[in-house]
Amino acid sequence: MAEVTCPQCQTRQEIDPDADGYRCIVCAATWGFVRCTVCGERYHTRPGTRAWICPNCGTPHGRNRRGISRVGVPLPLLLGAIVAIGAVVALALALGGDGGAAPSPTPSSPTSIADPLNKVCRDLVDVQLLRVDALERAIEALNGDADALRKLGERDRAALVDDAVTAIQSYQEVAQGGGDTQAATMELLDALDAVDWC
Known about the structure:
- The structure is a single chain.
- The chain is of the alpha+beta class.
- It contains five helices and eight strands.
- It is flat.
């Protein structure tokens, strides 16, 4: 048997070393495990966690809506790539890359941010962090997204976004005052799965 410490109540308890998760014997919190595909470390998560960053090596991880894991780019590699691209752009500008010609103005076109359906998908990213400040931002943004969808006549999709907001608020209440965290988590995941255009 392996020993683990519940992150919520700090109780040490024994579990099967190959267990995918467990329920705490003291506070009844349900936990799952994730393993970093880069450094191999194993960490506690709430059941159904879709995105997380390895605290050991900084690699972002995530799962699609069907639960299939996907690995992001390790943070050090991502930062190095951004710095390298910035250096190339700065060098090109310093060498007069385009012969000094002023760029021709292009007519402005609506971006994907102006599209409420894409904005909903972007705003749902904050929900996956499961932090109080991120959830508050997500609720505010998603309420605005639902209003924008209603103005476009997308009432069914606006209702799905409203359901997601309600599930987020329920999750917050349970997280702050106790209750069935597993039921609140499943309600939240079901509401997010219903937003099927993301």
